[in-house]
Amino acid sequence: MKKVLAILLAGMMTATAFAGCGGGSSSSTDSNADSKTESKADDASKGDDGSKAEADMDPSWADESLFGGETDITLKVWAPDKAVSLTKEQVEAFKKHYSNIKFKSIEVVAQGESDAATQIMNDPEKAADVFGFPSDQLDKLIATKVLSPVAQGFVNTIKANNAQKTIDAVTEGDKLYAFPETNDNGYYLVYDNTVVTDEDAKTLEGVLAACKAKNKQFILDSGNGFYSCMFAFTGGALIDGFEADGVTQKFVEYNEDEVIDTLMAFAKLMKDYKNTYSSQDTANISSSFKNGKAGAGVDGTWNSQADKDALGDKFGAAKLPTINVGGTDKQIISMFGYKYIGVNSYTKFPRSAQILAYYLTGEEAQTQRAQKLGWGPSNTKAQEAVKDDPIIQAVSAQSENAVAQVKIAGTFWTPMGTLGSELYKDSWKPEDRNATKTLFDKIISNVKDE
What we know:
By secondary structure, the protein is of the alpha/beta class. It has 19 helices and 18 strands. Strands 1, 2, 3, 4, 7, 17 and 18 form a seven-stranded mixed beta sheet that branches. A five-stranded mixed beta sheet has the order 12-9-13-8-14, with helices on both faces. The chain has a two-stranded antiparallel ribbon with strand order 5-6. Helix 12 (283-290) packs parallel to helix 13 (304-311) and helix 18 (413-424) runs antiparallel to helix 19 (433-449). The protein is globular and about 70 Å long. It starts with a helix and ends with a helix.
């Protein structure tokens, strides 16, 4: 019965799933053609009663007619370096499942997600057909029309199976623009539990004191705007999308005195724990655990497996700690986003690329990445399978104390990195309120006007 149902539903899905899909050359140059295609897609996906036809199928049993006759299929997939091996395994499983489809090649290439959008836009016709990217890159991918919206037939399933925040962040108007992959693109406190106790981990002062006592480093990449934005965020200077021009970074209303107090508190700890607090690239955290130099650090989920391997039974994880500002413990506020897999609108195999992207973000694939790489799934069933993982718990807790990594101006990151770098300098005077105010005002001005 299930096979019969699959055949019947697959026939319907073939007619509706890929309505509006096409290469980038036509969709990016003819707005009238776009309008006509979208109109036909709407008509094709409606049932006799005018309601949207159901097409909630899992590629694990969907009919191969979904490929629409595409043959000699050649695809390139971009994946982060640490995920390349697993992605290759998943691609082989995909090809094996669709054994009657003629794949010429599906190549998996290492490409960092942080600059995936830039690389796609540089030469979309030579870039990957399927690629991973973080949520803050969505706007420029849409604006340059290099991102193909998700095929209509997959949308209902994706919305039903993934965390709502990951859906909201990738939805513009009535279109879903990419396939949710993770619900964990953020950072947390990782520590050696023989150096830092769970109680110590609750406050930044406790973490630093514990590390100092054991002559270990606390590593936080203070010159990287992705991390150092926490200094301003914790003080209340939170971002809130764009201003009316759609370009300028918008901030919520904040109390500047509170922000200055908070920046001074961070700077004082950097100075007081000069030989303990170390600003380094997060790539050094796991190796510093391994060689015994580090006791704790602020790291991201993309490095979690390396940190686990380095610490073994000594591994500890928690949400970011508090910092004492003027006698009050303030929860450190971070940046938190999501990761997606997108389809290049210039692909020569739009159906195959969409099906592969869907497959790579399904429950099974997400569960594999969670178990083997430590990535936090966006798929709700996959989340259930790893809910007891300490990293997932830490990231989930921190996500409640974070700013969503969406609609971030390109001018945001560098000034925020400068903010952290200046506070960390040996020459910086944490007690100089006027200098701190001048620095902060300059940073905000650069974010808005740079």
